[in-house]
Amino acid sequence: MSGKLNEMNLPRFPLLSDEEMKELLARAQKGDAQSRERLINCNLKLVFNLVKRFHNRGYELEDLFQIGCIGLMKAIDKFDLSFNVRFSTYAVPMIVGEIRRFLRDDNPIKISRSIKETAYRVQQGREALMAKIGREPTVNEIASEIGLTREEVVTAMEAVQPPSSIYETLHQEDGDPIYLLDQLSEDSSSMLPRLDNIAVKEVLKHLPDRDRLILLWRFFADKTQGEIAVKLGLSQVQVSRLERQALKKIRDLMMENAY
Fold first, then answer.
1. How many Å apart are CA 228 and CA 249, to the nearest integer?
2. What's the CATH number where 64 sits?
3. Distance CA 85, CA 82 (A)
4. 98 and 136 housed in the same domain
5. 54: nearest Cα among 106, 121, 114, 119
6. Is the dihedral of CA 146, 151, 156, 160 positive or negative?
7. Same domain for 67 and 23
8. Which residue in 107, 119, 148, 166 could disulfide with 160, CB within 3.0 to 4.6 Å?
9. Which residues have a Cβ under 8 Å from the Cβ of 146 and sit 6 or more positions away?
10. What is the pLDDT of residues 174-230, one digit of tens each?
C-alpha cells in the first residue's frame, strides 16, 4: 500500500453510534451544513479503507479518495432514514460505485458496456486459469474457460488496451530512437495541410534548404525516407525526425499567415 494516503493526515474523528448517525443524517438532509460536514469527517476512514481496494489501477490514490468522498456525500443525501439498515451498509456500494464509474468513464476511448463486461470476464477467466495451470493461458484456453469464441476474447482484450503514443520508442541504437510513428504507413495527402500546392510551395521558401528539400522529395517527388536518407547521407530515422520538424514549421507558418 502506497504511503501517499497516509501522508494526507486524515483528521481523526470518533466513530458515531447508530443513533448519532441517524440524528445527523436527519439534520443534514434538512440543510444543516455542520451536521453534513461532521458526517463526512466521521466517515473518511470508511472511504480510505474502500479506496485501498483500487490500488495499482494507474491512478493517484488521493484522486480516487476524492472520488470516494463524492460517493459518500451522495450516500448522505440519498439515504432513506426509514431503511432498516446501517448507514455504512448503504454507503459502501455508493462509494465503491462512484470510484468504479470514474475508472470506467475516464478513458480516452469510449468502449461499449458489453465489451467492458466481456473484458472483465476474460480477465477473471485468465486469472482463474493461471491459478489452476500455473502459467499464462492461451487465448483458446481462456475462450474455452468462459464459453466465448476466440475472436470475442481477442476483441475484448484489444478494446481495453490503453492507446499508445505515436512517439513511443520502439528501439534505440547509437542515439537515434525509432518511434512508433516511424513504422506507420504514410499517406502524403494527410501529412501536409490540405491546401493548394502553390500555397504550400510558397511557404516552403521560408524553410532551411535541407528541410525544404526533404518535403519536396517526400510529398512532391514521392520519394521514400530511405531514398532521401541515401541522398543526404543520413539515417532513415534522422530523415523521419527532420521531416516531422519541417512539417511543424510549415504548419506554424501557415497558421501565422492565416491571421
1. 19
2. 1.20.120.1810
3. 9
4. no
5. 106
6. positive
7. yes
8. 119
9. 121, 122, 124, 125, 153
10. 555 555 455 444 444 444 444 445 555 666 777 888 888 888 887 777 778 888 888
Return the pLDDT at 76. Answer: 92
What band does 73 get if pLDDT is binned at 50, 70 and 90?
Answer: very high
Contact in structure between 99 and 115 (CB atoms under 8 Å): no
| Strands in the chain per DSSP E | 169-173, 176-179
Same domain, 187 and 96: no
- In a domain? residue 24: yes
Mapped onto helix, strand or coil, the DSSP state of residue 167 is coil
How many DSSP H helices and E strands does the chain contain? 13, 2
173 and 230 fall within a common domain: yes
Classified as helix, coil or strand, 80 is coil
Tally of structural domains, the chain: 3
Residue 87 burial (CB count, 10 A): 21
Quick one: pLDDT at residue 24? 92
What range does the domain containing 174 cover? 169-258
pLDDT in tens, 15-58: 888 888 889 999 999 999 999 999 998 998 889 888 888 877 66
In angstroms, the CA 73 to CA 236 distance is 57
